Model the fold of this input.
Amino acid sequence: MNWKMREVVLTVALSIACGVLYLGWSTLWLPVSALVGPVGAEVMFGVWVLASPLIAFIIRKPGAALIAEVSAAAVEVFTGSHFGLSSLLIGFCQGLGAEMAFFLFRYKKYSLSTLMLSGALAAVGSMAYSLLANGFGYFTPGVLGATFALRIISGAILGGLLAKLIAESLAKTGTLQQYEIMRQRREQQGDTYGSVSGM
Amino acid sequence: MNGTSTRLARVNPAVKLTAHLVVMLFLMMIADPVTSALLWILSIVIGVLLGGWNIQYIIKRIVPYFAFFLLVFWMLAAFGKGEHIVWEFAWFRITEEGIYNGLTIAFRMLGFVTYGLLFTSTTDTTQLVMSMIHQYRLSPKWGYGLLAGLRFIPLFQSELAQMKAAHKIRGFHAQGKLKSFARYTLPLFTQGIRKAERVAVAMEARGFDGAKPRTYYHVPTIRGMDWMYCILLFTAVLGLTALSFSFGWLHWAWTGNSA
Amino acid sequence: MAPYLACNDVSVRFYGAPSLTLRNVTISVQKGEKVLLLGPSGCGKSTLLSVLSGIIPGTIEAEVTGDIIRPASVGVMFQDPDAQFCMLTVGDEIAFSLENRAIPRNEMDARIDAAMRQANLFVPKDTLIETLSGGMKQRLALACLLALEADVLFLDEPTAQLDPQGRQDVFYLLKSIAASDMTMVFVEHVLDGLIDWMDRVILLDATGNLIGEGAPQDVLRRYSKEIEAAGIWRPRLFPHTMDEVSADSSHTLQITWRDSLKQSEKRAQTPRQEKPDICNVRDLTISYGKTNVLEQISFDIKKGEWIAIVGENGAGKSTLLKALAGLEKGRRGDIYIQDRPIRKWPATKLYEQVGFVFQNPELQFVTDRVYDEVAFGGRIRKFDESVLSEKTHRLLQEFSLDAHRDAHPFTLSQGQKRRLSVATMLLFEQKLLLLDEPTFGQDEATSNQLLARLMQRKKQGTAIVMVTHDMDIVDQYADRVLWVSDGTIRFDGAPYHLFSSEEEIPGLIRPLSYEWERRMRNERYQHPIGTR
Ligand SMILES: Nc1ncnc2c1ncn2[C@@H]1O[C@H](COP(=O)(O)OP(=O)(O)OP(=O)(O)O)[C@@H](O)[C@H]1O
Ligand SMILES: Nc1ncnc2c1ncn2[C@@H]1O[C@H](COP(=O)(O)OP(=O)(O)OP(=O)(O)O)[C@@H](O)[C@H]1O
Ligand SMILES: [Mg+2]
Ligand SMILES: [Mg+2]
Done:
């Protein structure tokens, strides 16, 4: 697994961009949860797992999804967020879930369905953490089931589908020319490569 | 941050991180409100004694989380399972178990926040990365990549402000939160990617490839003081747990709960 | 002799770009040579440096054909000072260069101090990089480069955002460290102080083809037509010297200087026109944290006036300009735009009246395409699409950006980005244009084009306020100059009066004509007439 420096910094930078996005999203979360209650607000959950499918889709390397989520959490630690340390634990669980999707397809298939699966599995990961740490096990089965279902659906759509949409619009701007996602596309289209040699 | 010259700030960051994570995992194993509350108070005591916290700081940084405390408590009290009904209204059914569990989880969350704050308020970013490299064998590529990326955080924040300014200047006026959210998301990502690329180029152009042997300007080590802190922290945690046990308050997460 | 650094028949195409950026370029450099690459903005100079230094295709991938040889250790100073740092503080940043070379820890501090001294960067080592001004960042980049002690140094416009004195200092510094065996490759638009110690100059034309090369004097003489056609800056003095020009009263340069002095003097004497004020600044104080950057500033801007803001790096010019645009809040005092406090203007209305160009052009960009970028303001304001498209095309053409209509703004060259960011502000009729260093990184042709455009706007009654380090522009274009120093406006008046005063102007260098005049005056003083 040989990461290029460019890919390493990209992962961190995108995690941070996602972090900024999460912050903006959080300000939307409060009014929504006031309106429909915390369980209903689970609908918004998916955006918080955006980083994994997005970065894995662009970089296409084993471990990318896990690393993305953990580094997004690390960023929170470094910025001095009070949730920093717990997000490290959550990030690990979510990232592991997100990574599973790509692992299941042996890191060969990067399609919308893989991304949505990844978002959904990230939701499962976060659910596992919530059961262990946030006392979700104490909820009544009805509430628990509803939370779980909403989270998975939201993870698949706001995590997976949104990641795909963002990545595609980024690809259109030409900013991703240097990364695996575009390289594979160029290969499919049979673009030729130049090369340099020493004299 | 106010605590970078305190005693806790001199504890090796990697050691501190591990110790706090261990305490947090321990908190997850505890399922009663009293022990959870004791362990939470411990973190505040440490903050005052070793982290340079004063009353104002606590009021400013921790008290806001009481709202969060109430929210967590309410959710579990109102939606949690239980038999012994205390109060019933519309679809809310408050039970003794719900209150008990709600308090446990709410104190646990507060504990997470303060142990996190204890760490972040006394840890320098660069030192933390360097200590991850030296104590945890994090590869320099990731360590320095993380540091380079961290430079973007203030940049991103000012960038978002600048981007809003740029839009304003160009005559764009965002209506509604969701719309401006959509408007700024993509540029934020594009800028992030461009920046990342250029920093990576700059780093490699300066002879960094993550594999070659290198020396370090900052070399954090583990000293006696770091062990002292761990021993102190763990002794206190176990001591409080034992105390709680001797009064019969202690419940472990796996023994099931009963009020 | 085998070349030390060379490329043979190299062509480069960026992925997604419609055409080749470099076409069959062949260059070879001997060990110890100092080479200067000249060419119009956007011709591929930065790209060529990246190829020679191995960044393309090593780190940035592109289609590259041809052969390249280079020595093992190279150092690069990039065009954009913001883009080259990866640590949080000044000391750590320089240490990063040393760490990569595996310098033992105990030598580091001394070397960091030495590098900072060499680069004239006098700030504490734990200063956060983000709080440095644009010029200070360039010095830091230089310090990092010096700490690398590479065999070959590539410098891409290392002084673009430095104040004139700083620029001379950096050139002087580079010259002094340029030991005979150090190879250096420069790209610069500003040639004075640099070209005279170059061994060779290489000329590129607008499409990235080699026009010619040779010793500086020869190239300037032999290719003067091509240089003019390509719109490349020529040195203001070189190959002549001040002594030579002063001695010969029929020297063409001396005649030009006399003329221009006369003109400036005349302009300084025409009374300020009685036009209404567009902007008033009253007792403005601005601070970052606890330190006041600007204190108790007051001045007025009249309709149709051209004002230049000058000052050392870090003096607070950008801060002042941002305040005028309502982007930086004053701690005390007020700014009035058309007699109304700026705080009371609704954003949409305010920016119909006020245009602003950031020092960093990238901050300006809000779309994915060069064309859309220019058209954006018009679309927001619901211009008629056919009028808009005509206006946009004309602007793109005037700013030589037409060929890049569909490119992403970020893939442009630094100079092109600068032009684009200015173009975005020229689509509609604001009453006040605020421009932060609008001409940096431009070649002669594009710079003149840009200034002509602004002149036209001025004639239509727009007030223009620009921050600049180019004193010739100040002298030729500005009606008034504000010199910002020590947190106040130290001078507010005609450029002629500032430049012909005897006062020291730290950080700035007078245009050559004034330098010559001062010299003549001093000589006369030393040898009063009749004593000779
Ligand atoms: N990463 C990239 N992707 C696509 N096109 C690029 C990229 N980098 C540069 N170009 C294009 O290559 C051309 C040459 O750019 P370059 O930066 O080398 O110009 P330059 O001579 O340094 O100009 P300046 O003096 O303005 O800095 C420009 O037209 C630019 O749009
Ligand atoms: N966001 C900020 N936070 C703290 N200090 C700042 C900030 N921005 C600028 N400064 C400081 O304020 C001073 C003025 O900065 P400013 O950017 O206005 O200088 P300038 O005159 O435009 O310089 P230059 O010619 O280098 O662009 C500098 O000392 C700079 O370090
Ligand atoms: Mg360039
Ligand atoms: Mg400035």
About this structure: Residues 97 and 148 of chain C are 6 Å apart (CA to CA). The radius of gyration of chain C is 24 Å. Chain C touches chain B through 58 residues (CB under 8 Å).
